[in-house]
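Sample 3 of the quickstart, ligand calcium ion:
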Amino acid sequence: MYRIQELLDSSGVIFNHIPYPTFLADKEGQIIWWSREAEKSFGYHLEDVQGEEFPLFSHKSQGNPSVVWENLLRNINPIRYDAIELTSKNGDKKEASVTAKSFTFEHERYVLFLIDYNQIPNNEETSFKELQLLKKGLSESFMLIYLDKEGLITHANEQFLQKSNWTPKRVIGKSFWQMFPNTSEHVATADKVMKVLQQGKNFQGTVEKITKDGHNYWVDLLAMPITDADNNTLYYLLLEEEITEKKLLQSRLEQIAYIDTETGLISRYRLEQITSEYINEQRHFSFVFISIDQFYTLKELFNDQTEAELLNEFTKRLKMYFQDSIIARATRDEFALITPLSDWYIQGFIHFLTQNPIYLNNKVIPITVSGGITKYPEDQQSYLHLIKASNATIQKIKQQGGGAIASLSQSDHHKLSRQIQIEKRMLEALNKDDFHVMYLPQKNSATGKITSVEALVRWEDEVLGTVSPEELIPIAEETGLINEIGTFMLEKSCEQAAIWKSKGIPLKVSFNSSIREFRDKNMVKKIRQLLEKYNCPANLLQIEITEKFALEAESDITIIKQMQTLQQDGVVFVLDDFGVGYASLRYLQLLPVEELKIDRSFINSITHQGKLQKLVNGLIHLGQSLDIRVVAEGVESKEQHDLLVQMGCDAIQGYYIGRPSSREEIEALLK
Ligand code: C2E
Ligand code: CA
Ligand code: CA
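Result:
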């Protein structure tokens, strides 16, 4: 448990991250902490202001101070006071907005003040952290590591050894990279540090490292190349200060005070709350999500320091343009607004950004944004769905190159809400057994008889109407419910094949499978159990896989093994939609496929396109030369049928043979 004073006294002081002058008062209105930015802006140190009641404000403009204060203490929302005149130590007066936010910490009430001048300042920020680090020098509080030019450790001080749990002997010769967690993200960080050093520059930033025994910890890192008089690099010196605890406190305080400590905006926790409050009160508003285009590319151009400045400058522009709106930091490079403003005004932000460009180190940073506007209650009705919809809009805009803010178009709107409804009702439908199966017949060319049927899922929902598999399957794959649907279809396929067998009808049943089902290591077991349950011979079951499935299976030996085992049991694998996607020939060699189905897009215009005929003819012969049966699907006319049979196609499927039918209709067809 921390008392707030201990917390504020502790090393870096949590709220010093906020790029605005900030101070904290207790419930009596006495200042108990004063940020570095505040020192810088007003010339006062904490000793000067400690205990004072609002030293900066002129009370007149804000009414009776004790009433204002009570109000502030009780209100959990941030309150903003505009046009406040503030006086600094040397008598200068400045006008600013002050945002005050009260919060409770360890049963006591506090108020956090953020001061914002609303102006675009000229850019001559001195690097505070760096100065501080240097001032502290190489004192004992730092962990020190020396690297040679290849990044191998040549020396490490006691502090580092203690923290990292390496022994002095063992650590020598270990690489810099070994001190980082072994994930691609962390390796990229280490690479970046090294790259900066090799360019002869300093790196400074916060990085996550790992001890020898696998515990992660956070440090503020300053890495610098040490050169001789002729500017030749001798070695690299790394100074590290551990900030793990600070990091944890920071995120905890962020949750309590709902302030994003990097920008001073409200945090996403608070955003979610405010949105829900607005929804409860049924207030109308636009929810706007704004994402900086190519943030990571931009970021690459700069170091960590300028990233913070960039975000800070961007935040200032948001605040200037969107006054009277609630502005939140949503993720690293995304911001969210709750606003009553009209679409055209919101879209004007793009123009505003070009008129007020961001300069860093005297260079214009070419920033553009993509944004999505979603309206409550017209478009979406919950926080999650507002976010989801705005994100979908942004994705679309980014695909088109970014640099625009758009509202959810009517058709998207329709699609999205239907998609969300499908998601919701699918679970219910599974529980209620609302799905059923239709069978699509396939005719053997040699015998002219129906020898197999393909099981297709059908869903008739009382609210949504007919939901086609084309709509249903992608959503089921996304939500994971495809496994449930797959199990249902598989069970029905085995059951029906067994019933037909017992009636003396020799029909194979094809089941469409998603790769997701085969990622389950128990797929073989599951299929064997179902075959046994219904007493269905394995050779009556066919499993159709798509090329997308094949592409993934190819690199996953456990999937191939499962397929091979099932094939040995007698199950037949069919490669569906053949020819639409990838370099398909490889799969035919690699996977235990016994049949391929030429996609219906090839069959469509086969009777009047000579080239297509040749292609299909080639596919048929290719299959046959590999001992793979070839089926044509989507055959709708007699001409198509006759042509394909003449070419030597082993089997034909499509409306010409029969539409998807109930099991009774299939039985009637066979008579
Ligand atoms: P698919 O596997 O290629 O299935 C054939 C689709 O083509 C079926 O559409 C069928 O009704 C349609 N079709 C058959 N003959 C003709 C024809 O002559 N002309 C035309 N225009 N269409 C024809 P459906 O039932 O809408 O299924 C669409 C897709 O949804 C299927 O394509 C399959 O990929 C997927 N699907 C269907 N049921 C399931 C299932 O139970 N599980 C999984 N994972 N996917 C399924
Ligand atoms: Ca199929
Ligand atoms: Ca197909």
